[in-house]
Every structure is written in C-alpha cells, then in structure tokens.
Amino acid sequence: ATLSTLTRKRGAATYAQTLQNIPETQVTTLENGLRVASEESRQPTCTVGVWIGAGSRYENSKNNGAGFFVEHLAFKGTKQRPGPAFEKEVESLGAHLNGYTSREQTAFYIKALSKDMPKVVELLADIVQNCAMEESQVEKERGVILQELKELDSNLTDVTFDYLHATAFQGTALAQTVEGTTENIKRLTRADLASYVDSNFKAPRMVLAAAGGVSHKELVDVAKQHFSGVPFTYKEDAVPILPHCRFTGSEIRARDDALPFAHIALAVEGPGWAHPDNVVLNVANAIIGCYDRTFGGGKNQSSRVAALAVEHNLCHSFQTFNTSYSDTGLFGFHFVSDPLSIDDMMFCAQGEWMRLCTSTTESEVTRAKNYLRNAMVAQLDGTTRVCENIGSHLLNYGRRIPLEEWDARISAVDARMVREVCSKYIYDKCPAIAAVGPIEQLLDYNRLRSAMYWVRL
C-alpha cells in the first residue's frame, strides 16, 4: 500500500508543472549548415532522426514521386552496407527504423537504446549520404510502389484529399500527390532519383533531431564525425525559393454510384505554418470537433455538428483539418455520408462555419482551448513523438517553440478573436471542393458558394 501511494504521488503533476519541467531543446549548427537539436531526458531509449526540407512540392511533373521512391530505397542498403548487411546491423541493435515523405518534408528516424546513439547516427548519415540505389533494388521497389498505388486508390479519404489539393492548388507543385503518378513511377530511372537526392539533400535543409537519454554534446560530436560530408550550400541557395501555390476556389467531382458512401471535403485557403492565426483556427476547429459512429457518445457531445449528425443520422463520420505549408494551407472539413444525406450534412457544416464567424461564445472557446492543451501535452508521449516535434519545428519555424509559449498563445484566444479570424478566412470566400462516390445530391458549386455568407439585415 505504501509503495502504491508513493508511485501515485511520484506520477502526479499539475499541468503548469508539466510545462515548466520540460527539458530545454538545445540546438547547434555545424559548419556545413546542418542543425543538430536534442531534448535530453532520463530514459533508457532514444529516437534519433533526420528531417529534410524536401518533398513532392520540390518536384516537377516529370519527376513527381521521386522523393517517395527514394524513401522506399533508403532502407534497402547503402554503398558501405549492402541490403542484408544493413538489415542485420539494425536488427542487432534491436532498433525500430521508419521514415515518411510529405509534400514539404522527408524524414528517416530510428528508435533504439540510448547507449547505441552513436551507431544510430552513423546509420542515418550513411542512409542520407550513401544510399546505394542499385538497379536491381530500383526495379524491385518500382513493383512494390506500383502495387502500393493501387492499394491507395481504395482509400477514399486519401483520394479525396489528393483531389482537394489538385483543385485548390491546380497548376502548382502542391497539386501533385506525394506518391507520384503511375506513369512517373514506371519511367523514373536511377539517374533521376540520384539527381533528386543531389538537388535536395543539402545540409542547411536538414535537421538531426534526438529525444531521450542523449547528451547534446555527444550528439554534436558524433554528428560532426558522420555528417560533415553532407553537401554545403550558401545560405541564399540552401532552400530554393518556391513560387507561391495560389489557392483556387474550384471543385473536382468523381462520381461513382457503385460505391456505398460519399466522401466530401470542403476547404478555404489557410495560413502558412508560422502565421499567428493558426492558433485561433485550431481553436475554431476544436469547437466544431469530430465524430465517428464507432465512437459512441450520442446526442450529448459538446460539438453542435456531432449532436446534429447523431440526431438526424447525417453522416458516418466527419473531421476538421488545418493543413499548413510554408506559405499557405487548407482549412476545412471532410465527411463521409450516405448518398441521400449529403445536402443536409453540407448545410449543417457550412452553417456551423457561419456561426463561428458571427456568434461564437466564450464558453465553447474555453472548452476548445482545454481540448487543444490536452492535445499539446500529448506530444510529450514517447521519444519518437518528441523527436518528430523537434525536427518539424526547426524546419517549419526555424526553432522549437516551447509548450509554455503555445499555452500562452492558446490562452490569449477569446470569442472575439475566433469570430474575426474565421471571418477573415471563411466568410464570403470561394471554397475548394472535392467529392468522391455517389455524389448526385451534392449541390451545384454556385449554391455551395452562396452558403459561404449570410444575408444579415
């Protein structure tokens, strides 16, 4: 009983104490421009990763998909460690290795025991600088990716969001999918992939991030030893100046009456990563909330849209999103519904947008702020999430923003700010719409556009 009491007391901490006791994020920039950042904690494990400012936005119509292709090849061996030797070395550490590619970022990270950090950094440096890209592996992964593209086509949520980007940013790099087109994957050569790596894997566009039982000084020393060969570029050439991906109010409709449910996404242009309005828009999204039939909850949910969806059987699920990029974004909602409920659900969702612009209350803003605080503290759960937070923040903001600062920004939001910022981005704006499935009941674009404002006397 005594031990149980001590354990409970040791684990108890107030929200304020949690924010104050977070270890400092230390950042060191190497001579070649690569940033090394870490948060040290008393844990037996660590996650170390390389975050790179490269993705499908840095591709063109001819090499779209190259970054995704390179990600597949990254763990198939290096020039110094052929495939089997590389896999054996990772397995001998008992490590977990993973990676991902998005529209503006590429990441490779490894979770292992803290004592193995030097070997982990060595492996990551080898991946980034010496990926083998053997012809046999290129052809093998080509087949794997083509099969993956077929499977992605069956995920209608992902398909809908790809269509949303295609119509919202049409004619620009953000309209491209991360995975690339089937034609490009069939055509890309080893030389194309090597050219993509040479053009984008530059030291000033990289962050070596670590979280867990890692000494920053030791991490920097190991990074100097293994990452000094990453190509240096002058600061003004470090990140290419990308043309602004102009938002276009338009729509894509992919009607297929053979599908059981309709997937609808509607969005307006949102701000870039560093814009202060993002916090207010996240509060607005928290007010709308999310819903899924499998969650339960019924009519007693705090979200008005969720309560209406349950009461009138409007949809199977809905979610809000605020997807940010370096200079623009998409702020909107996505729902899945039966064919005959599309009009009612769209009316409900757009009506909630208008209500946010005109009559948001302080009580619902307070609830939404508490939800955001909970989600923010959840970022501390595990070294991998902390490591990703460090790497992404340095690429997106140029520094890691402390949770205390996020908390202060959230606390400053009130109902008036939500009404003003929502009016700025939503009210009387032309939306982008993507719809997939049995969407006959989806109203004409002009009718949907007319629901983006209220006639007020």
TrEMBL record:
The protein's name is: Cytochrome b-c1 complex subunit 1, mitochondrial
UniProt KW Electron transport keyword: yes
Gene from which the chain derives: Uqcrc1
Give the UniProt subcellular location, in the record's own words.
Answer: Mitochondrion inner membrane
According to the entry, every stretch annotated as the Peptidase M16 N-terminal domain falls at: 35-181
- Membrane topology, as annotated: Peripheral membrane protein
Peptidase M16 C-terminal domain: from which residue to which, for each copy? 188-371
Species in which this protein is naturally found: Neodrepanis coruscans (wattled asity)
Q: Which GO terms describe its molecular function?
A: metal ion binding
**A UniProt-annotated Pfam family:** Peptidase_M16_C
Q: Which InterPro entries match?
A: Metalloenz_LuxS/M16, MPP/UQCRC_Complex, Pept_M16_N, Peptidase_M16_C
Into which family does the record put it? Belongs to the peptidase M16 family. UQCRC1/QCR1 subfamily.
* Quaternary structure and interacting proteins, as annotated: Component of the ubiquinol-cytochrome c oxidoreductase (cytochrome b-c1 complex, complex III, CIII), a multisubunit enzyme composed of 11 subunits. The complex is composed of 3 respiratory subunits cytochrome b, cytochrome c1 and Rieske protein UQCRFS1, 2 core protein subunits UQCRC1/QCR1 and UQCRC2/QCR2, and 6 low-molecular weight protein subunits UQCRH/QCR6, UQCRB/QCR7, UQCRQ/QCR8, UQCR10/QCR9, UQCR11/QCR10 and subunit 9, the cleavage product of Rieske protein UQCRFS1.
Q: Name one GO cellular component term.
A: protein-containing complex
Which keywords has UniProt assigned to this entry?
Acetylation, Electron transport, Membrane, Mitochondrion, Mitochondrion inner membrane, Phosphoprotein, Respiratory chain, Transit peptide, Transport
